[in-house]
Amino acid sequence: MNDMLRESPYPMLAVEDALATVLAHVRHLPLEQVDALRAEGRILADDLVAPEDLPDLPKAAMDGYALRSSDGLIPRRVVAELTAGVNPTLLVGPGEASRIMTGTPMPAGADAMIPVEQTRETEGMLVIERVVRPGEHVHSVGQDLSRGALVLARGTRLTPADVGIMATLGITQVAVFRRPRVAVLATGDEVYEPSAPRPVGAVRDSNRYALLAAVREAGGVAISLGIARDDRETQRRAILEGIAQADVLLTSGGVSMGTRDLIKPILAELGTIHFGRIKFKPGKPTTFASVGDTLVFGLPGYPVSSLVAFEIIVRPALRALQGDPQPLRPRVLARVETDIRPSSDRPEYQRVRLSWRGSELWATSTGNQGSSRLLSLHGANGLLIVPPGLQIYPAGSSLEVLVTGEIFNQNIG
What we know:
Molybdopterin biosynthesis moeA protein, domain 3
């Protein structure tokens, strides 16, 4: 029995192969129409083209005077004042000008404008200090966008600026990929709700709440399934409940090789296990399976292992499900602050703080890298990828880092 427990029947893949396996099983979720003015963070499902010219009329680019450029330097009689939001019926004739405010449609007859600070107006007569060129300080029709032009391409992750563009064009509904519904289940007799009395030796359920938050950050709709005790039928029912209501199911704990690690046998019974281990640290027992159309990730019970495995394996799947054409986090090279001792047999993802020092990017360890120490993730904005081996990487060495957060200049961050 002990020999059987030591030999896992499930394949162990390199990180790259595990990620490729996961993404090969991802299909874009169905489209849905949503309020375009509240669609920030969503992924466009169709190309968006301009339904009209922007601007739709020639408009003043700043406060000043609309006039005929052909009049040269002659004084002009000021015949009107035009303000934004009004389409003028005025005709500016020879020797005439009109006060005009920024964004106001140009009056007929006027082909240019001059900023107010380059003029003098006395008793209704305008004197200009220089000759004005045709079209000067005038936004022409379609200058920003022409009707039918591509505004935002399919696969764009909408930003606040994109919402503003859609509002400007009068686009109030937009097709996006549906957000993945992600159910999260914690397992273990020793796991208790943070608000519940904690027996001696028990732990509070940090994994589920951290994973629910990570799902939301990745754009998913998070569903909590609570805690399932170490009983096969209890966990099986909870897994089936998650599969029934979610596109993705995440379990925490129960994926190692002990007698109470029940997740893998249950998944093998219900569906197909594609891999049961990943050759990396932390998070070796991470499991990926599919049950019908639901993708299932069995994540380790240690808090750091669970979140690192989520970042490396699960998050890209969630981003790809909602149509993100670039689901992977960026990678950069950074110099290490201190000597780095690698694991002898597998790559390790160490938690670091990235910061700029002049033109160089540096990675500083967050301290003890133990799999149970959640504080190693506090303040981390990168995962330092340390290749396996026996050779220490001395301080100043350059290693690859997976960027997980915003990078600041050291003197302000």
